[in-house]
Amino acid sequence: MWTRGSNSGQLATRTSRFSMVHQYILRFNEVSGNKSAAIRRRSKTPGVMITQYAATLPEGKSTPDFQSKPMPVSVKEGNLVIFKAMVTGDPKPDVSWRRTKGNLADKEKFQRKYDESTGEHILEIHEVSAEEADTYKCYAVNECGKAVCTTTLSIIDGSTIPEDFRKLLKKSKSQTAGGDNDETFWDAMMNADRRDYESICSEYGIADLNMILKKLEEKRKQNGKNKQKDIIISCDNDAKKQDTENLGKKNYIRNEGTVQHDTGIHIGDVEEANRHNKHLTLVNAEKDLLLTEFKISNVDFVIKIQEVKAEENDDALFECVLTHPLPKITWMRKGILLEEGEKYNITVSDNKLIHGLLIRDCTKLDKGIYSAVAGIISCSAWLVVEDKRNLTGDTKKTIRKTAKAAGVQADLEKMAKEQQIKVQGEMEKILKAVKEKYSEAEKLKGETLTGGDNCGGSNKTSKTQTKSTKNGIVTTFEDSEVIIEEDDLKKKKQTKGHVGCNIMSERKNMKDAPLTTFEDWDVTREREQVRAGDLKKEKRSADSIEGEPFEDSQDPGHGSNVSNIRQDQEAEHDVTEFIDQWNDVVQQLNQFRGNKNCNKSPRNKEKTNNEDWKEQASDSNEQVSDDELNTEETKDSADQGKYQQSLKQSKKSKHAANGKCVFPGKHGEGDETENVNHSANHIRRKRQDLVTNSITDPGVQFIWGLSDVDAIIHESAELMCKLSREDCEGVWFRDGKQIYPDDNVSITMEGPIHKLVIMKCSEDNSGKYRFEADGRKTEAMLSIRDPPRFDPEDLSAFTRPLTVKVGHNAIYKLQFIGHKPLKVQWYKDGDELKDDNSTMIERSASHTRLLLSRCQRRDTGEIKIKIKNDHGFTEAVSQLIVLDKPSPPLGPAEVTESSALCVEFKWRPPKDDGGSPVTNYILERQQVGRNTWKKIGEIPGVPMYRDTDVDRGRKYCYRIWAVTSEGKSEVMETDEMQAGKFAFPGPPAPPKVVSAFNDCINLSWSSPSSTGGSRLLGYILEKRKQGSNLWTCVNAPDEIIKEKKYAVTDVVEGMEYEFRVCAINLSGAGEFSNASEFVFARDPKKLPGKVTGLKVTETSYTNMVVTWTKPEDKPGIQDEAKGYFVEIRQADCTEWCRCNSSPIIMTSFNVKGLKPMDMYWVRVIAINDGGEGTPEELPNYILAMPLPVRPRFTNNKMKSFMVVRAGNSVRIRVNFEASPWPEIRWLKDNVPVMKRVTISNSDSSSQLLIPTSERSDSGIYSVLVKNIVGQETFSTEVRVTDDPKPPGPVELEESVPGTVTVIWQPSPDEKRDDRLHYSVAKLESAKHTWTTVADRLFNNRFTVCNIMQGREYHFRVYAKNDMGISAPSESPTWGMEKKKEKMVITEPTKKDCDLRCAPAFIVPLKPQTATVGYECCMSCAVKGDPAARVTWYRNHVSINTDTNYYISNTCGVCSLLILHVGLKDIGEYKVVAENSLGRAECSTVLSVRE
After folding, report:
1. Which residues contact 773 (CB under 8 A, 6 or more apart)?
2. Neighbours of 56 (CB within 10 A)
3. In which order are the strands placed within the sheet that holds 1092-1099?
4. Extended strands (E) in 1154-1270
5. Lowest mean pLDDT among 418-427, 754-763, 823-832, 1225-1234
6. What is the distance between the alpha carbons of residues 1409 and 1247, in angstroms, rounded to a whole number?
7. Using one digit for the tens of pLDDT, what is the confidence trace for 449-505?
8. Could you report the per-residue pLDDT of 1230-1276, keeping only the tens digit for each?
9. pLDDT in tens, 50-77
10. Contact status, residue 703 vs residue 595, Cβ threshold 8 Å
11. Quick one: which of 279, 756, 912, 1052 is 20 to 30 A from 1088 by CA?
């Protein structure tokens, strides 16, 4: 994660989430100074910035990018927030999440996930609060670069009550990043509606909305204090010269909580006003929360899109159902927005709940994940495009099908209807709750308005000061109401002022005319939205005009009144906003009911005063304007009418030089104050009456409004809407101009339904149409298109199939009209046709012609024409049928019956009938052995023939032609068919008893396996009583049984019978079947009951023994059981498998064929003549394994020590018993055995095998047998050795007289064999036998005692081990016999030459290459004294004793002969020569070629 420094926003550290390659690249750039290596660019996905580390990327690599970025989310506190992002890039990028303020260290609150099925990286924020409202960033990084995108999380407060404001909006001490210091930002926020605060903060990059709201409140309070000044508005005398520059401005002078009553000015009760304001704030808070919840209701999917499998060239349809109606959702594929066109068709149902995406003509490229996005939620599914399956092999184009999700699209219309009813009920509840809150708010507002009438009581009156001037009087009024009308813009605007308390008025005599001055008005700003169809926003601010202020000392209560006024202003502003949001709720409900383009309120058309929507909904169906007010007031008083006339004339007066607005009045009129006060009071009462009426009568509503219409030129178009009342008339407009009926336009009204019909559309009729009724309006667009169209007569003739004969021409002609230019394309079986030798296409501005010359049968198929232009396209399809002779009938012919009397056979119709049905077949017959063919004639078009004119045993061949209206096909000749001989049918299966009664037994049987070569004519059934040898025929001799069932009625009640049956064919009756089971002629018995005491007594890996007790015999309820069936099923299977094919009478059964360690359920079913009873099932499953047994070795003769000659195999086998199957491990010296050791395990034994042993294989081998019950271990010591080599030279020493110490050099094998020992033998001259004087010597010396003087001694030393004894090493002669002294003549002695030497190779082995099957001879020469012992090895294995090789050693020449070389002889061959003085080796490699 990145961290920020205290004084800068530079990135300081990186976390381990970034790959090492990425860190290395960044470090390299920093060290080398290559800061410009990174390339920044924007992604195709809006709002994504990509940084590329290198100028060029390796082949196949790419920088990260966002296929879909996370969407901004606005939720209430305590809810779950989910951000989703899909990234691409090679190598796969690492994805991390961060936030602008704070970190994501809390893993319980911030959970990061990855969905492998959709490839989405997910950040979940649990139980969000105001502290999590922030800007979140998603980073995707790999070694090629990184991609960054941002999103915002906004928290919607559940309350805006001032008492709880501090808790919900915690002020941030840190300075906000972005544009909170920009004056344009604060101007926009001051003049914006509350609902636009979030969007403005997003534009300026500010995430902390809560802090901005607090600052905005402080700025408003500061501006209110600065503008708390006295304003005097004067109007000039001359109405004709009044300045009109400010007519477009809207001035609201609002002092809520205070009213002017009569001519008295009262001081309001401050505590009472505060109480009303507080209550209004509470209502407003609940109202805001309710409407917010309604507007941002969480849209979800009732039925999500699911995987669709489609074949190539077919259409695929994704469909989903929403919980709330939406006019449009977003369809995406791989992050790309899908739009309506020829490839994609986006559909929406009438109730806006069912949304669909149709993908036309699917190809392999269309395969992938498709997503449906509705608001902040989405769902995805795969489209799988499979190869086109053509099982018949027909190359003709098949009909295009539409593939949908399998098994999920239950009934979308039904689900959508249920959801529509549910949502409509919820909206009705919301509307009812809003009505109650609104009524309470209006009631409180009425109390607030009427509370000012008694402000300060009747004893407190206002003061009026009059000052005389030369020409008139100046009268100062306070808390009056000014109404300004703007004629140029034709908009009605109302500026309201409210009465303040404790204000004095003065009348002064002026020089020119009487002037009226208003003081102490609180002018506030307010932003109004003028919705003229497209919701255009217009910001208005009140102009503050500075007048001459009065002395504060004249009004001691002015300060407190100003505070009350401001509180009342805020309260009335809240109620006004609540009225606007009420209209929004009504509008949304109307839209849900079907009114698409209905205005939210009449305020959308013109923003007048806050009660305009109620006034428009009144029975008069007129807006309240200044003229209407004047008309109403004229009825009350003529003076009031004159005063209103003077107000209208004062609209164009200029501002006075002193900053006062001057309203001229007539000279001589006395007290105009009373007229003004009376007029203001009457207007206020009029407004209150309108508010009250609007609550009870909302006026006319649209049941459903206009819908956009696409009409075709020169054809009719219809616009239609429905109102809630039948007696309401309306007006139609096109592009703002009213429409009147004429010859081409018809306007009708059928009850509440209003229609506008255009008989013949032209391009001039396109535009925006609007219908207005009783202040309500709905709009729709009429688009006139001129797509391609065919002439109806030509189209009718074209769609009829065209039939031509082979070799003839086929001509298609069509006329069409449409907007130019037009593109004409012809297709045949889906392939576009081009001009060639057999195809000619003519095109002109209004018609086209296709000529297919010399048509062949293969040209049969679908002919399609497609014409398109900028306005659309049209298609027409026809069928071309080319007639030809049929192809030959298909063989081979199949013989269905062959008897001595007839031959019946059938064949298949022609593969291609030539376009005409086969009417007849022509047959000829030839007897095998003859040259002539006999004409049989024509038969009907059924591919079957029965030839009755045959001789028994003769063979025949047939020729067959197919005949259609176009001619005769080629001939098809059958194989030889032989007429049958007398052959009788085989025996049927034994009859089965279907049911038995007192007077009837029903039987059935199956056909015999052999019919004797002819068809079966029927059956003969016989019966026999129990104990009798006589079979009697059941059916009459002349009435054979045609069917394979029969009801035997000739039975005696209580007797037991058995039955047999035989089949009859054309040759006669065949052999009888075996007898059936005996059956009693009695009514069916009751079913047996359940078996009892079912249990498993024994189990093993392959079988189990089940026992039970037979069920009880209860007469009238359950009869005795005659047999039992045992059934089992595996735990993961739902079907029962019957273990015994026939019932058993025993109460135990051995179930065999189980799979070891599988789980099985077992049940037993009792059966009798009445049928099968209720199964009895074990309560728990059975595991196929024996009872648990601790491992135990069963072979007591196992060896604990063994000696093996090197090169031989080592085999250790142990037998054991254990249950369940144990785990077996072999160890050598407590280490797992090597891989070349073969381990073989079975149920009760285990074997270790070393095929070719070496000395290194010596050691202690242990086997560990372990299961869940326990374990057991057995160890064997293995000694791998060979015959020892003889010891070295022997020396003799005499340390003590009468003793000889024998000393010898150790054997070469002593170091490799720790069990090697020596033996010493002695030979005396007086004796001629060798005697052992010492054995099992582990050192290299031995002292022999009892040495006699005068005798010669010879000693031999042997080396011994577990395998055997070596050759002796002899010592020199010790001592000599005592003889008479003789004169010895000394002769010069000759020193003997020692010729002994260690072995050495004179001629080494050479590399050999032999051919498979031939001989191979390799030889070498070795010298040594004494003669060396030679041993041959192949791959380190001795082959001296192998009979496959011929080995010889002649005078040191060693030869090896391989008589028959094979691939098995490949390897390394080595010769080892050894004697007592040393050892020599020589090796070579034998290669074998095939």
Report:
1. 700, 723, 728, 729, 730, 731, 754
2. 6
3. 1092-1099, 1104-1109, 1148-1151
4. 1159-1168, 1171-1172, 1176-1177, 1182-1183, 1189-1193, 1201-1205, 1210-1219, 1223-1228, 1231-1232, 1238-1241, 1245-1250, 1259-1266
5. 418-427
6. 39
7. 444 444 333 343 333 333 333 333 333 333 333 333 333 333 333 333 333 333 333
8. 999 988 899 999 888 999 999 999 888 889 999 999 998 899 999 99
9. 998 887 888 888 999 998 889 898 888 8
10. yes
11. 1052
C-beta separation of 901 from 983 below 8 A: no
1377-1416 burial, b for 16+ CB within 10 Å, e for fewer?
eeeeeeeeeeeeeeeeeeeeebbebeeebeebebeeeeeb
How many other C-beta atoms are found inside a 10 Å radius of the C-beta of residue 1327? 10
CA dist., res. 490 & res. 352, Å (int): 38
- 434: number of CA atoms within 13 Å, CB side? 25
Gap between the Cα atoms of 737 and 465, Å rounded: 54
Instruction: List C-alpha distances in Å: 364 to 309, 384, 401.
Output: 12, 8, 16
Asked whether the beta carbons of 1357 and 1310 are under 8 A apart, the reply is no
**Strand pairing category for 1416-1425 and 1453-1458:** antiparallel
Residue 1433: Cβ within 10 Å count: 18
Give percent helix, percent strand, percent coil of the chain, each to the nearest 5: 15, 40, 45
973 Rama class: left (phi>0) / alpha (psi -120 to 50) / beta: beta
Residue 1208 near residue 1281, CB atoms below 8 Å: no
Say if residues 1221 and 1266 touch (Cβ distance below 8 Å): no
Alpha-carbon distance of 643 to 626, in angstroms, equals 12
CA distance 690 to 678: 18
Distance CA 1329, CA 1323 (A): 6
In whole angstroms, what is the distance from residue 824 CA to residue 834 CA? 12
Cα–Cα distances (Å) from 1003 to 871, 996, 1079, in that order, read 75, 9, 11
1129-to-1155, 1163, 1187 alpha-carbon distances in Å: 12, 9, 21
pTM more than 0.90: no
d(CA 738, CA 514): 47
Return the beta strands (E) in 126-254 as ranges: 134-142, 145-156, 252-253
Which residue from 1412, 397, 259 is spatially nearest to 829, judged by alpha carbons? 397
pLDDT value for 584: 56
Report the distance separating Cα 1335 and Cα 1344, nearest Å: 12
Angle between helices 558-593 and 412-451 (to 10 degrees): 160
Cβ atoms of 1425 and 1397 within 8 Å: the answer is yes
Instruction: Quote the DSSP letter at residue 1207.
Output: T
In this prediction, residue 5 carries a pLDDT of 37
What is the C-alpha separation between 567 and 571, in angstroms, rounded? 6
Inter-residue contact 225 to 522 (CB < 8 Å) = no
CA distance 617 to 697: 7
User: In the chain, pLDDT over 90 holds for what percent of residues?
Assistant: 29
CB 115, CB 97: distance < 8 Å: no
Question: Which of 261-270, 351-360, 593-602 is least confident?
Answer: 261-270
Chain-centroid distance, C-alpha 1038: 72
> Which range among 451-465, 681-695, 1097-1111, 1471-1485 shows the weakest confidence by mean pLDDT?
451-465
Strands 110-115 and 120-125, sheet pairing? antiparallel
d(CA 488, CA 244): 9
Nearest 5°: the CA angle 1440, 1442, 1445 is: 85
As a whole number of Å, the end-to-end CA separation of the chain is: 67
Tell me, what DSSP letter sits at residue 8?
-
Calpha distance 1006→1015 (Å, rounded): 15
Q: How far apart are CA 1476 and CA 1288, in angstroms?
A: 7
